[in-house]
Amino acid sequence: MNQDPAGPQVQRRRPLLGLSTKLYIAIAGAVAFTLAASLVAWISFVELGQLQRRITREHIPSITDSLRLAQQSALIAATTPALVSATSEDEQRRLMGALRDQQKVIAGLIADLEGQIAGASDRGIPHELIEEIRKATGELAGILDRLDQSVGRQLALSRELAGRRDRAVELHRRLIEKLTPLLDDATMYLVTGYRTLEDVAPVAEGQRLSQDALLDYAATAQLGIEGNLIGGLLAEAANTPDVNLIAPLRERFEAAADRFQAALGVVSGDEADALRLVADGLISLGDGQGGIFAPRREFLVEAQAARDFAEQARIIAARLTGDVDRLVAGVEARTMDAVAASNRAIDLGGKLLLLLNGIAILGALLISWLYVAPQVTAPVVRLTDAASAFEEQHFDPESLAGVRKRKDELGELARTFTRMAGEVQARTKILDRLVAERTSKLESVANRLAKYLSPQIYNSIFSAKSDAPGALARKNLTIFFSDIEGFTDISDGMEPERLSFFINTYLREMSNIAIEHGGTIDKFIGDAILVFFGDPETEGDRNDALKCARMALRMRERVLELEKVWHENGISKPLRVRMGITTGYCTVGNFGSDQRLDYTVLGGPVNLAARLQATAEADTILIAESTWLLIRDAADTTPMGEITPKGFVRPIKYYRLNGLAAQEGATALTRTGRHVSVNIADRRNIPEALAELRRIEAELAGQVPADQNPA
Amino acid sequence: MNIWRTGTLAAMLWLAATAAHAQSPGVFDDHILFGQSAALGGPAARLGSEMRRGILAAFEETNRAGGVHGRRLELRSYDDRYEPELAVANTLKLINDDHVFALIGAVGTPTSAATEPIAMADGVPFIAPFTGAAFLRDPALSNVVNIRASYFEETEAIVEHLVGGMGLTRIGVLFQDDSYGRNGLAGVKQALERRGLQVVGAEAYMRNTTAVKAALLGLKRQDPQAIVIVGAYLPSAVFTQWARKLGVNAPIFNVSFVGSAGLAQALGPAGEGVYISQVVPFPRGDTIPLLEQYRQALVANDVTARPSFGSLEGYIAGRLTAEVLARAGDNPTREGFLKALVETGTFDIGGFKLTFGKGDNSGSEEVFLTVIKDGDVVPAERLSQ
């Protein structure tokens, strides 16, 4: 865009409430509701965040701690029985250590929970519950300590007892091992009287079977029984789980031990000493604290105490678990509350959000419907419609009346558009008028011109075909010349009005005939007429010639017919025409210059036609040999000999045209289907045609059923 | 960080390598350790110590030849005094603390009854227990490797000799009052029942004592034509002496477990004509090359050592062990050892054939009969297979 810097700038003032401002307002309005909705959402999130924080920072740790508390107390409940049945000090230490660890963990958890109470943002864990739990754990600690001590004593006793029991078993075995051979030897002696292998002679029966001997034998046997009993009782005491059996076992033991000691008197010798040693060892195991009975009793009592402690611990642990359950339930309730609150918040927020979104959408719709549409889109539509109407050329300025009143860019646009449209319309009207004027002028010119041109030339000029001046063609044309014999004489003695009437009529009639037969009228020279066939259109040399001949004949006939008319109009002298026709190659086209063109034909045949015409007698048509050759089979002619016109080298044969045969192939009457065409070339054909028609009528009547025959 | 990674990797590899060195328990780079819990003290001391002597003779012979795949064979022995409780304690120690490759040369039925389950549970091979107890020949005990014929086979051979050979019908039995004795008694009863006979008297005596006199009196009352003793050498000797003193002259047959040398010694002159069934060939004989090999190995280990049935049995056990190990590959495992035993199947230990297979853990069923003459144990005649 080239702007002229020196030229005046047209200042355009931006309207105050411009289109952009209006749009911003509209959008701002729509956005406002969305913002409101977002605000609500944000508030909801904040609240949810608070609730969630409460849950994660307070409730969940509380629940976790509570569950761990429960877990620890369960562990304690599980570990305690194991402690009770610990079999070694190592195990005891290990289990006790585990229990103490678990207690420490519980103490830590309780402290945690107390901390949570302090920092709770809702009603929190009830303080009493924590106190209960703390009390329970304290009691548990006490019980576990006592249990530990009891188990310790148990283990010590158990270890001692184990040693003593093993010793008892060993001594018992040794005792039996010693007693069995004793009895065995005693039996041998009793039965055989031999004491040793070296004995030569057995002791006499009387001696060895004496009462004393038998009693000694019995005592020996007794030793075995009592020895077995002692050992058995000790083993039983060492293994019995029932503390109530200890006393009876001890009683029986002491009885057996007494009997044993008594029976021991029987045994003598080295064996006896060894035996006594073992026996003493065995018997001492039933004695007091260094024995088996008392410690076993103590052990069993202690075991029972331990079991009692364990049972107490179990009860406390159960209480603890109950407390923790209540704790967990409380926290759960608080969590449920929080969850319910958050659900409510979500619910409310959701509903509010939905509502606001609805309002936002509605608001947006209203804004666009009540504001944007009329303020922005309607005027634009109107403008667009106006433009379309303008395009279709029925723009009505009133349609933009409302838009024009606006104070913004669209108003300006409307005003500008209206002005522009008005200008365009006005200009268009002027132009249309000018064009119409020019066109009518042109038409009248053309009309006037037409008079001076043959129709073919006229069409040729006024049709799309454009011939460049100077485009000449050489064609085989049939040339026709005619004039009125003695016209000069006739015209001399005639009044101008009568002359003009006569010549006009003559020329008009002759032109019509020429046009009828498809000839191109070249020119009128006074009474002379020059017509040629074969240009601009041709039907072939022969047909052109035929047409020309037919035309000539018709002209002669017409002149005869016109004589009557002229007679009535005061032209008394008879009209005689003379015609000449030749066929030959001529040059045809626009001759002349840029300034002045004449569409005419030049060439030898033209001259010849003129010569022939001049040679012809009145009412005679002379044709040259060239023409005669073309039409001789259809024409009635008379040879006239030869002439050698001036300018021609050789003599030309010429003939007189008398008439033409009926048009070949042209029947007077043709009937096809329901149509009948009557072709009358000549007045003489009419009776013929009538006869034919009558014949056709009869034929057709015969085809119609009798009752419908109109005839 | 790369150094850390490499270092850790190297440490782990080293650990794995050292762990790999331990390989199978008892298998070390340069030796394989065997464990024995047997009566090395107490009344059956001779049995355990002879067994040990024989095993060591075989092990040292192998070691002198370069060991098995470059590893020496070593034996660690604990005394259990023929008492099951001690045997259990010893076995646990050998397996869990000493990590022996296998147990070998346990002595006694009650002790084996207590310790074999422990070995079975830990997958430890239980090689050549010095006992013919029937339960150890149970095909299900796939970790037990028996060298000797069982008591059933021994008692069958004895009964065959008595009934078939000597045409006797009244057989009495003295048996130790434990599973060993009862095993032997059952064997005699079964053998007699097969011949349509029954034991005329069976008397027990307490283990670890010589209180056989009441038993003798009981048997004497039945007037047996022959007496089979399933017991230890001292009670057997005392019984025999007293029997002869009381005029019981029935032939007396002992089973191999009695301890032949000890018996001969304890019996003295009363031992003349006392029979002992054996499960290994006469150690001073030359019937097979094994015996000369054995005697040389024995002397190579201990110049003062004298051939005995017990140590011959130990020697056979040691030789078998070495041969199975040789077939168990460079890195023998307990499973591999037992597998090699079963897969090889037949072993020819210097002419003494042992056959094993799936479900057959009894290597030999051969029983030999010996008799005491002039205070020496000499072959009587070869009996059943």
Descriptive report:
The complex is a heterodimer of chains A (711) and B (385). In chain A, helix 1 (19-84) packs antiparallel against helix 2, helix 3 (127-192) packs antiparallel against helix 5 (211-239) and helix 5 packs antiparallel against helix 6. In chain A, 68% of the residues lie in helices and 11% in strands. In chain A, strands 1, 2, 3, 4, 5, 6, 7 and 8 form an eight-stranded mixed β-sheet that branches. Chain A has 711 residues and is an alpha+beta fold. Chain A folds into four domains: 20-152 and 302-350, Alpha-catenin/vinculin-like (Four Helix Bundle (Hemerythrin (Met), subunit A), Up-down Bundle); 155-297, no CATH class; 469-660, Nucleotide cyclase, GGDEF domain (Alpha-Beta Plaits); 667-697, no CATH class. By secondary structure, chain B is an alpha/beta fold. Chain B has two domains: 22-148 and 285-355, Response regulator (Rossmann fold), CATH 3.40.50; 151-278, Rossmann fold (3-Layer(aba) Sandwich), CATH 3.40.50.2300. In chain B, 45% of the residues lie in helices and 18% in strands. Chain B has helices at residues 2-22, 45-64, 84-97, 109-121, 151-165, 179-194, 213-222, 233-245, 260-267, 289-301, 309-326, 334-344; strands spanning 31-38, 72-79, 102-104, 126-127, 144-145, 171-176, 199-205, 226-230, 252-254, 275-278, 346-349, 352-355, 368-373, 376-382. Chain B has a seven-stranded mixed β-sheet with strand order 7-6-8-9-10-13-14, sandwiched between helices. In chain B, helix 3 runs parallel beside helix 4 (109-121). In chain B, 55% of the residues are buried. The model of chain B has no long low-confidence stretch (mean pLDDT 90). The interface between A and B is medium-sized, with 13 and 15 residues.
